[in-house]
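Final report, results section. Input specification for complex C-07:
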Amino acid sequence: MVEPIVIDGIVYATLLACMTIGFTLILMSTKIWNFAYGSLATAGAYISLTAAEVWKLSIYSQLLTAFVLSGIVSFVLYRFLVRPLSQRGISLDGLFVLTFAFNFVLLGFLNIYADYLTNVFKLRARLFFLRGADIQIFGTPGVVIISPLLAVSIIVVLHLFLTRTKFGTAMRATIENPPLAGSVGVNVNLVYSVSWFLAGGLAGLAGALLPLWILCYPNIGDVIMLSVFAASILGGIHSIYGAVIGGIIAGLAEVWGTSALSGVFGSGVIQYRPLIPLIIVVVIFLTAPEGITGIEWRGKLTKRMRKV
Amino acid sequence: MLKISGLNAGYGKFQVLFDVDVEVKKGKIVTIVGPNGSGKSTLIKSVMGLTKVYSGKILFKDEDITHLPTHLVTKRGISYLPQTGNVFGNLTVEENLMLAGYTLSKEETKKRIEETLEEFPLVKKYLRKKCGFLSGGERQMVAMAMAMMRKPEMILFDEPVASLSPKAAAEVLKKIMELNEKGITVILIEQAAKKALQLADDAILMTSGKVAYKGSAKNLLAHPELGKVYLGIKGK
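Structure output:
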């Protein structure tokens, strides 16, 4: 029998990896730290609540809805705010502030929607948990099997998309050198738009599965953003594959670290769980600012072997 | 073929070009020379839609391309080879060539790659290598092959031989001449002014974002004052 804490870690880490992939994609393509990203995941969580409690449908049947809706909101942020302002010469710092402000708008909508669900449908929408709405696969909650499968599928599909398709190659080229990509005929703005849509979609997808395992509320995205930042920095902010590794390590460290510390210091430690991603960020900045994928492992291993 | 009139352009609020008028005739090699910071690169970047144009017009074959995004300028038949970062270092040579045919169909891209490799046989040798691992001369050849993939009518070169060995530089310049002989109009920015002017039909001398001279390259080379003051050419 697998320990519940192991399952907890795997579900959280794989969902965090999905979110980190999208966050890192935006960072790589447009160099923007999108502070509104967490709320896109929360939007996904509310799609699940609506699907399960209002439409009486399986949450899994509405994953695509969550992907598309969050993707559209992310695209709107890029197309109608980020792009026009960056064309007017606003600095990257200004764009960070813009995403921060947009996050407040999203939070406003999410709170209004939560109140709407509470008042009209008499649901517990300000603090909800949908574990009871999950399906069972071989006696195991569906999310335990589906979230790792989803993470692996996303990685495989994204890898094939980036390496085997013309548009994927154009995306890699645009990430590396946007002016040159434009001068070989790539529509750079279209690439950016697709990146923002995909990234938002991934947040929505991961967010839709969150209430199946953890307690959700309108601000849950902001709390998870700390972990997403940490995971992205840990993986090295210039690599999709690094984002996956960072997401899994940061997610497992957060869940298992909190569990281990509460075993030693008591359950009071649990409320300090968000400190773990912050500690990860500090340690990474001090020891390997380029992240895991920025380390020259081959050189390090060779040096170590020589010493031995 | 290319007519620029009253062009004021720069980056954000920083204006670099002031009231620039330039005309480039079909089939010519035009060299743009001038001291560092005189606006040479900004001028060709403006043609490619990579700067902010405040006022003025850029016409290519009588079509206004002033505010077109870069990928649409490319579609009109202009290729651009930037001074640095003229290939995608993280992609293989083959992927770079395929990307150069981005606007073409799959079959057409394959056909053009074969044609281009016949023209640039050296590139064949390192087709599977990532461009980041190539030498400066090899990268420049790949960049030129990429430019040719689109069968352009005009190629804009920004210091193509800067930091190349003399042998590699000679090869690149020879290739540029060959391309011009095939009817492609060439605009060439070069710091080694004397050498570049010797290749060119026409010349543009830029200083402080303005055109100080335009006309025959031979006349500029022979000019007793302009060459000496701005280009360090000590006469014939």
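The mean pLDDT of chain A is 91. The beta strands of chain A are 136-137, 140-141. This concludes the modelling results for the funded period.
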